[in-house]
Structure formats: C-alpha cells, structure tokens
Amino acid sequence: MSEKVSWIGAMDPREKILNLLLVAVPVTCYFSYIAHDESMAFFSSLVAIMPLAFLMGRATEEIALRTSESLGGLLNATFGNAAEMIIALLAIYAASKAASGSETEALMVNLVQASLIGSILGNLLLVMGLAFVWGGIHYTEQKFSQTQVSSNGSLMLLAMIVLIIPAVFNSTVGGTEGDEGVATLSHVAAIVLLMLYGLFLYFQFKSHVDLFATESHNHEEPEMSQRDAVILLVVATVLVSWMAEILVHSVEYAADDMGLPHLFIGVILLPLFGNAAEHFTAVTVAGKDKMDLSFAISMGSSTQIAVFVAPMMIIVAWVLGVPLTFEFGKLETVSAFLSVLIVNIIASDGKSNWLEGALLLGTYVVLGAAFLVHP
Q1: 174 phi-psi bin (left φ>0, alpha ψ -120 to 50, beta other)
Q2: Residue 285's Cα: distance from chain center in Å?
Q3: Has this prediction a pTM greater than 0.85?
Q4: CA-based nearest residue to 194, from 278, 311, 351
Q5: Which of 2, 244, 354, 369 maximizes the CB count within 10 A of its CB?
Q6: How much is the pLDDT for 125?
Q7: pLDDT given for residue 367 in this prediction
Q8: Which domains can be identified in the chain, with CATH numbers?
Q9: For 33-58, what is the mean pLDDT?
Q10: How far is CA 145 from CA 210, 258, 306, in A?
Q11: Which candidate, 88, 79, 81, places its Cα nearest to that of 122?
Q12: Residues 59-114: tens digit of each pLDDT
C-alpha cells in the first residue's frame, strides 16, 4: 500500500490533470452503447486514449527500471501495438463477413493497409521526431545504441522491399495473373518476415545480448511494485484497445461529418491516437536522457509493425479468405520507403539533437498533407 501511495504522491499536477481525462472512458461507452451517437463516440474515444496511454507508459517505464531499456522498449512496443492489432483483426473479420468483391470488403482491407502504414510513419517520423526535439531541448546532444539502429534499420529496409516488390510485380504482370501472383508472393513474404523477426528477437535477447546492453537504472528507484506495474500495464492496454475498437467502428460517421478522406483517417488519425501509448512514453523518457529506451520504443514499434503485425495480418486474412496483400498503394509504399531511408541516415551515427527531430517532423507534416489532399 505504501508503494501505491508514494506513486500517487509522486505525480505532478500535469499528470493528475491528465488522469482526470479518464472520465472520457465512461463517456465514450455512453455515446457508443446507449446514445448511439457515433460521431461523439469517435471524439470522446480520442480523448479517452490519451490518459490511458499515459498510464501504459508509466507502467512500462516502471518495468523497464527493473530490466534493460531494450526489453522495456520491446514491452512498450508490443503492448502499444495491441490496439493496432485489434483494429486490424476486427477490420479483417468484417471483411471476411462481407460479400466477396463488395465495397465493404475493399474498405476494410484498405483500412488495415492504411493503418499499418500509418503506424510505421507515425513512429518513425512523428514519435522519433518529437523525442529528438524534446530531448534536444534538455540536452545539447544525446546518444543511443548504434547496434539498435543497424539491426532495426536492416529489418525495416527488408520490410520495405516486401512492400515494393508486390507493387512492381503487379504493374509488370497485371490482370488476374498479377493479382494471384501478388497474393502468393505476399503469403511467402509474410512467413519469411515472421521467421526473421523471431531470429531478430533471439539475436537481441539471447545470442548477442551484450551488443544491446545499456546502462543500468540504479540512480532511479521504482515507485511501484513489479506486480502493480504489470497489472496497470495489462488493464491500461485492454482499455486502450477497447477505446480503439469503438474509434474504428465510428470512424465512418466522423469522416462524413468532418469531410476527411478515408486514407487520411486510416494513415494519420487512427495510428496517431491508437498508438498514443508509445508516443507519450518515447517522448517522456527522451526528456530524461533515456534515448536507448526512447529509440527502442519508436523504431522498435515500427519494426514490430512491419515484420510482425503486418505479416501476421496477412496470414490471418489468408486463413479467412480476405484478399489482403502487401500491395499497399504507390503513395503509401513510397512514403514508407522514404521515411525508413531518412531515419536510417539521421540515426546512423547513434546521436541526436533537436534539429534532426525537426527534420523528421517536417517530413511527417509533408506526408500528412499529401494524404489529406489525396482524393
């Protein structure tokens, strides 16, 4: 009990105000299940995700204090992507129940593809950019593991090849044969990516764990017990996923009200709020000069989306008979490839400053504008 009291007492006024926004959770439930006002449910779910994201980040940071920053980053990326996985799974399930070749099936498939690409762009450019800027305000120069940059960057480039090849193949072959070839190619690539991600985890946490070793956190004592931190992380993750589920079901009504393109909502809005958990944590820990943890969250989350979540969704869609492939569209594919390229260049020296963060944020704004004006 004393540990819980000390944690509550340690919160600054901003954190307490943020926690007051938890009232948006029952408000979202009211609009969604009682009032059946989908537009209000959309907006209230956006607000509800913010305090839940903070609680998830706080719990993950507490767990990271007892482990390494690499493991803490992996945990945050995994639980932060839970909402994204649920959104994708629900959309795939809805597509499987729709008639083959119908508008509903096409809409759900496009929503999955857009949200996956949006998660990669958001974590690589927005989250890492904010982390570099916020950390750069407090410190002239910050350092992080070059091994993380190299290993994650290599996996991300491989994932980009997986996105580019199906698009090139389909444009070259075309027709029914092209569609069938892209589907087969996507299934093979999904299996390969999942195997490589498993090997990457083994490399990082077993065979070459010394390369990812980071400084200990002996200078900072945990404010919560490990049991309380784990419980808080699980509960917050479940609630974030729940709110994200309501958000995706109400997005069509909100799109009509606001007049926003579906592609912009899928690529920008859904990942922005659905992945708010790791967004908040990555920026917060960067201000504490924990750049290894911040980088592991932002880059690690993108890597996990690209080489675990995306291929897993391809496999699930394959089983359910949904035509989901790695052909994500030219604008989405080029945007993702260029984002991976600029991040690899900027982070290759294992150092960061606020100007590099501003460059990443500028890139994200330009890409966001492209998706906003896309017909």
Answers
A1: left
A2: 17
A3: no
A4: 311
A5: 244
A6: 92
A7: 92
A8: 69-215+246-373 (1.20.1420.30)
A9: 84
A10: 12, 43, 21
A11: 81
A12: 877 877 776 656 766 776 677 677 778 778 888 988 888 888 887 788 788 889 98
State the burial class of residue 270 (Cβ atoms within 10 Å of its Cβ: 0-12, 13-18, 19+).
buried
Q: How confident is the model at residue 14 (pLDDT cuts 50, 70, 90)?
A: low
> What does the pLDDT look like over 28-38, one tens digit per residue?
999 999 988 88
Residue 219: partners with Cβ closer than 8 Å, 6 or more residues away: none
Residues 6+ away with beta carbon under 8 Å from 174: none
Give the highest mean pLDDT range of 52-61, 178-187, 360-369.
360-369
DSSP secondary structure code for residue 99 in this structure: P
Backbone angles phi, psi at 351, to 5 degrees: -130, 155
Distance between the two ends of the chain, CA-based, in angstroms?
A: 56
Q: Which residue, 250, 370, 309, 259, is CA-closest to 115?
A: 309
Return phi, psi of residue 374, to 5°.
-70, 130
**Two structure tokens written together for 35:** 């009032």
282, 286, 292, 297 alpha-carbon torsion, rounded to 10°: 10
DSSP secondary structure, 121-167, as one string: HIIIIIIHHHHHHHHHHH-S-EE--HHHHHHHHHHHHHHHHHHHHHH
Neighbours of 282 (CB within 10 A): 33
Q: SS3 letters for 282-319?
A: HHHHHCCCCHHHHHHHHHHHHHHHHHHHHHHHHHHHHH
- Beta bridge partners of residue 69, listed in sequence order: none
- By residue count, the chain amounts to 375
- How many whole angstroms separate alpha carbon 153 and alpha carbon 358? 20
Q: How far apart are CA 233 and CA 148, in angstroms?
A: 25
Scanning the structure block, which residue is given the tokens 């120069």?
A: 141
DSSP SS3 for 350: coil
Instruction: Express each pLDDT in 245-264 by its tens digit.
Output: 787 778 778 777 877 787 88
What single string gives the DSSP state of each residue in 7-30?
HHHH--HHHHHHHHGGGHHHHHHI
